[in-house]
Amino acid sequence: MLAAFGMLVATSASAQLFDVSRLDGDPVPLEVLSGRHQGEFASVEGQAIHETSRRPRWWRLTAREAVQPADAPNLVLRFPYLNRVEVWRPGDAIPLRRALVGGDADLDFSTRALVVPLPQGLATGESIYLRVTALSPTPMSVAVEPLAAVHRQDLRHVALRTFVLGTLTVLALLAVGFWVGIGERTYAYLSLTLAAQAFYLACVGGEVRALPWLAELVGSDPRVGRMFGLLGVVASNSFVALYLNLPERHPRFMRVLHGCNAALLVLLLANLGTIATWLAWVANVVFLVSAATTFAVSVTAAWGRQREAYFMVLSWAPMIALVLLRVGELLGGWRNPEWMEYAFPIGLAMGGLVLTIGLTDHMHQMRRDRDHASRLATYDVLTGALTRSAINERLEALAEAAHRGRRPLSVVFFDIDFFKRINDAHGHRVGDQTLRIVALRTRNRLRTYDLFGRYGGDEILVVLPDTQLREALCVAENLRAAVNCRPLSIENRLFNTTLSLGVAELHYGETVEKLLERADAALYASKAAGRDRVTGYTASRLRTTAATPVSNTANSHGASTVV
């Protein structure tokens, strides 16, 4: 849709209104206007002025048919970029000077074209003389448009260029924000790429004239725009290398891009000292190699099902064609249709948008991977319980809060009786299913804020916030009953399983390590007393430093006695 809009804006010029011819050399204006060099002008096909030399040259536009003054006609030189033009209309002794930037800029019109009014119109056979100083080798198409048509085309041009430059600027700022916020270096390279592209387009397209101090520099020195172009390619290559992880996945392509970046940096330094035409040619060739390499590695990575490469292919598939057409024209290979002047910046903006979406998707994938790894580190895969490190960390926090608020906290340690015998007799698969079912039965008997963690092997730790020892003993008895109340059904077989449990309550000022030692001692007391029972560990009534176990033992029918 955007390409179609660009083609609408760049409606082709009218029929052949002029005979276009060029004069080699730069004689004084008086000699040219007097007709002394009339026979030296060489005819040029088409309706465009294509000047490749940086030396000023004379061009002549001879009207094939009359141009009536009724519609306020204007001579329009489309897409002049950095070219400067002096125009002598019939009868003019002093030329009109036109350029997109600098002191000769006509701010009454957009940067789409250089506009020269023809208030008297043109008679058939009358000529307009132009002295062209070309700082960019891009052809300027020639047309005559009524003033109303000029304004309509200008409005469309401004809308499209505002969209392109606005998109690139906003994406660059977003990338900076992501870079600062999450510290991902790939966003920095993307931001630099987009910003350099926006500045390059603004320099060669004339929008930089909104900044007068920079416009004066750009208008007289093409090295400024070229510098932004070179910098954008270097940043783009660096972005591709990081985004597709070329050093590890595609080292051969990485070496090619390293070579291109080295050449571009040399050209960047050379650009500071010269405006020679050869530098632009070499830069365009390196740019072509970089673009072809980027597209090739994107296709290769996409073929290997690398997710990030899909976005690169989507971004570069249209861009590679536009780049080839654009650079081919700059190198003098062919003439592109006029709508290409809009297709290329639109392609840059859309490519930047796709890459931003792709990089955001890449970061989301990294976050999902990180969350998955975090979950694996936090929860046991087999039982769904917290891992040892996770429950220890949370127990430390709960113990600190309990000390600070003088609130009770208890823990329950339990394991499955004769669990090693189950593994040895029936295999680890049955043992794993036993552990999973026991974890499910016991966890369902806890409150939502109680913590349930696998401490190692078949040993489970339960943390009971705001729970005193007597209440914790009841909870532990409930856990024991949840397992031995009925056999476990595993692979069409029934297994009778019981638990041994140890309970301890946190004392004020006590460390977590000491609390767990007492709960573990109570667990071993249950085992020593015959298993399938609950033992609570508390301080003696005399509050001595020694601790004595108090056992709450139940027989297989669930009857309890207190010892």
From TrEMBL:
<dbReference type="InterPro" id="IPR011623">
    <property type="entry name" value="7TMR_DISM_rcpt_extracell_dom1"/>
</dbReference>
<feature type="signal peptide">
    <location>
        <begin position="1"/>
        <end position="15"/>
    </location>
</feature>
<keyword id="KW-0812">Transmembrane</keyword>
<feature type="transmembrane region" description="Helical">
    <location>
        <begin position="339"/>
        <end position="360"/>
    </location>
</feature>
<feature type="transmembrane region" description="Helical">
    <location>
        <begin position="253"/>
        <end position="272"/>
    </location>
</feature>
<keyword id="KW-1133">Transmembrane helix</keyword>
<feature type="transmembrane region" description="Helical">
    <location>
        <begin position="187"/>
        <end position="208"/>
    </location>
</feature>
<dbReference type="InterPro" id="IPR029787">
    <property type="entry name" value="Nucleotide_cyclase"/>
</dbReference>
<feature type="transmembrane region" description="Helical">
    <location>
        <begin position="309"/>
        <end position="327"/>
    </location>
</feature>
<dbReference type="InterPro" id="IPR050469">
    <property type="entry name" value="Diguanylate_Cyclase"/>
</dbReference>
<keyword id="KW-0472">Membrane</keyword>
<feature type="transmembrane region" description="Helical">
    <location>
        <begin position="158"/>
        <end position="180"/>
    </location>
</feature>
<feature type="domain" description="GGDEF">
    <location>
        <begin position="407"/>
        <end position="539"/>
    </location>
</feature>
<keyword id="KW-0732">Signal</keyword>
<dbReference type="InterPro" id="IPR000160">
    <property type="entry name" value="GGDEF_dom"/>
</dbReference>
<feature type="transmembrane region" description="Helical">
    <location>
        <begin position="278"/>
        <end position="297"/>
    </location>
</feature>
<protein>
    <recommendedName>
        <fullName>diguanylate cyclase</fullName>
        <ecNumber>2.7.7.65</ecNumber>
    </recommendedName>
</protein>
<feature type="transmembrane region" description="Helical">
    <location>
        <begin position="228"/>
        <end position="246"/>
    </location>
</feature>
<dbReference type="Pfam" id="PF07695">
    <property type="entry name" value="7TMR-DISM_7TM"/>
</dbReference>
<dbReference type="InterPro" id="IPR043128">
    <property type="entry name" value="Rev_trsase/Diguanyl_cyclase"/>
</dbReference>
<dbReference type="Pfam" id="PF00990">
    <property type="entry name" value="GGDEF"/>
</dbReference>
